[in-house]
Amino acid sequence: MISFFRYQRFLGMLCLMTFVTPAAHLVAQEGPQQPDATSSKEMAKNPPKIDHEIIKILDGKSWGLHGEVLGIMYQVIMSIRHMLYGVLDKTTKTRVGMYEFEGKMYSILLLAQLESQLHAEFLAREQQLMNGATPADFDSLDSLKRKYAAKKSQLNQIHAAIKEDFKNTTKTYVEAARGFKEQMLILIKESCKLRGKEKCFLLKWAEAPDGKETEYFENDMTTFRAMAEFFEDLVMFLEDLFNSCEKGREQFKQIMSKAQQKRNKSL
């Protein structure tokens, strides 16, 4: 059982809410890659749920998926979404990325686009200069390679920072889930079937031996695109699991309600 002391670290942000908005609803509203408006609204009304006996066994239990664990899960969802899509600026109603590159703020999805764009531009310009084959072209080629290498070095530093952010964000959740990892793997597989993603790095990460999750993540996440895909798959699973635990979700709402009442009294 996760102690309330550990959970209190997350209440700062969560206690501002008077009730819990289902995570799938947040995806329908904010996610940048929705199939169409109709399917988005349908997902918000009827979020995917994992129908498995394990849910019935763990849902709401003091040693299973109770309110405090779902609180940790919810915070992980929101933290990763901020990394993926940026943080909503309430003034401008736009999202601002968490990671700076050359004076601009980027989300992971925008970094994935930037990484691909820079690589494509480099290859096109490199081919153009090589076709010229004059001394001036070779000098320009050396300059091009140096500038590209410098940009790649900056992006690699951001990549490493994101990995650290992810490890810090998921550390408590991974520790909480470790006691029933075998069951979590089954549920991840069920979620992937629901989403039509039965082959993804999320499964490999989940199947890693205890303590090896970070090693697999370090070795396989070599591009922002791979990182974005993994994060999106992980968020989808956590949302499915969150929405599937009716008893745990009610316990979470009660925790939020009590926290809100306590906050109101202190004002």
Number of strands: 4
Instruction: Determine the number of helices (DSSP H or I, runs of at least 4 residues).
Output: 13
User: Main beta sheet: strand number and arrangement?
Assistant: 2 strands, antiparallel
- Largest sheet strand order: 1-2
| Rg from alpha-carbon coordinates | 22 Å
In the predicted model, the low-confidence regions spanning at least 5 consecutive residues are: 1-41
Query: What is the mean pLDDT?
Result: 80
Instruction: Decide which structural class fits the backbone.
Output: mainly alpha
| Intertermini distance | 32 Å
The fraction of residues assigned to DSSP E strands is under 5%
**Which overall shape is indicated by the principal axes computed on the Cα atoms?**
elongated
Quickly list its features.
single chain, 267 residues, mainly alpha, two-stranded antiparallel ribbon, 13 helices, 4 strands, 4% strand, elongated
Entry summary:
The chain is mostly helical and 267 residues long. The protein has helices spanning 4-7, 11-14, 23-30, 37-45, 53-58, 67-85, 108-132, 135-177, 181-195, 201-207, 213-220, 224-244, 246-266; strands at residues 87-89, 94-96, 99-101, 104-106.
Topology:
Elements: H1 4-7, H2 11-14, H3 23-30, H4 37-45, H5 53-58, H6 67-85, E1 87-89, E2 94-96, E3 99-101, E4 104-106, H7 108-132, H8 135-177, H9 181-195, H10 201-207, H11 213-220, H12 224-244, H13 246-266
Antiparallel strand pairs: 1-2, 3-4
Helix pairs in contact: 3-4, 6-8, 6-12, 6-13, 7-8, 7-12, 9-10, 9-12, 10-11
